[in-house]
Design a protein that fits this description.
The protein is an alpha/beta fold. It has two domains: 17-132 and 281-290, Aldehyde Oxidoreductase, domain 3; 175-274, TIM Barrel (Alpha-Beta Barrel). 42% of the residues lie in helices and 18% in strands. The chain has a six-stranded parallel sheet. Helix 1 (17-32) packs across helix 3. The longest helix has 30 residues, at 103-132.
Length: 291
């Protein structure tokens, strides 16, 4: 297991414990709220067990604290001993953690615990593939979007950070981001930016999405701090970067594929955001094997 994160020395901070606990409690209530008829019927209360969390494929780990929290909530007697940390690259066959305690309690919590760590590690693994596709020495950031599973944003965005990516705005109050429908509702790019600047606190930068060069020029002339180039092809992207010429930060979104990452980054953009890091990440294959 290795940790070769591109995040440098920045600490990898998980969501607050109370957030993790609330999400785990909600998931356990959904799965275990009416009991476990199979385990209660088949497994003696006095039986203890030991299982191992094992990777069935190469992956980037995320969610080990959530995994631990699930079992702690099911039964405080369960002990989890992790041998890997969030952000680590894990090889196929690696043992990530050991779980020991009452066998019935382990069985009652295993599915929920696995669901969380598989999903979060899937996000981390996909993010890492995008980060790894950046050219050597690139200063471009790979970022997520708000296209997250309702209720699970905190965990999925942590998965992005575990994969070496960055988070975009956390919610609608976090930053000004003028999108195409804002522009349509306001009647134009300039008026939307002017209204946003008059309303927003002085500490907030103004970002505006544009989908053609005419809008880009209007956004720059209106003093946008950040421009989001939406669905620009390679030729249009190069022209846009040349036009902006450092007058605003440049984010690229829409039509972002793993294959395009090197070319987009090489064009000199600051941020590449991709909703697919969260909404299309595949849950990785992890298993709990009984000793």
């Amino acid at each position: 297991m290795t940790n070769s994160s591109l995040r440098g020395s920045a600490p990898l901070v998980p969501p607050p414990p109370f957030v993790i606990r609330e999400l785990c409690e909600r998931a356990l209530a959904e799965d275990l709220g009416r009991g476990d008829v199979t385990t209660d019927a088949c497994v003696p209360p006095s039986l203890t067990g030991r299982v191992s969390l094992v990777a069935r494929e190469p992956l980037v780990l995320a969610g080990i604290r959530v995994f631990e929290t699930v079992f702690a909530l099911v039964d405080a007697r369960i002990e989890v001993s992790a041998s890997a940390s969030d952000g680590d690259r894990v090889a196929k066959g690696d043992v990530i953690a050991g779980v020991h305690g009452p066998a019935g309690s382990i069985l009652k919590g295993e599915r929920v615990a696995l669901n969380f760590v598989q999903r979060m590690s899937g996000v981390a693994t996909k993010t890492r593939s995008f980060v790894d596709a950046l050219p050597a020495g690139s200063k471009t950031r790979i970022a997520d979007t708000r296209k997250t599973t309702p209720g699970l944003r905190a965990l999925e965005r942590y998965g992005v950070r575990c994969g070496g990516g960055s988070n975009h705005r956390d919610d609608l109050s976090s930053a000004v981001l003028i999108k195409d429908n804002h522009i349509a509702a306001c009647g134009g790019v300039r008026v939307a930016i002017e209204r946003a600047r008059a309303f927003a606190p002085h500490t907030s930068r103004i970002e505006c999405e544009v989908d053609r060069m005419e809008q880009l020029q209007e956004a720059i002339d209106a003093g946008a701090d950040i421009v989001l180039l939406d669905n620009f092809d390679d030729a249009a992207l190069a022209a846009a970067v040349a036009f902006v010429a450092g007058r605003a930060l440049i984010e690229v979104s829409g039509g972002v594929t793993l294959e395009r990452i090197p070319k987009i980054a090489a064009a000199g953009v600051d941020v590449i955001s991709a909703g697919g890091l969260t909404h299309s990440a595949r849950a990785v294959d992890l298993a709990l094997d009984w000793a």
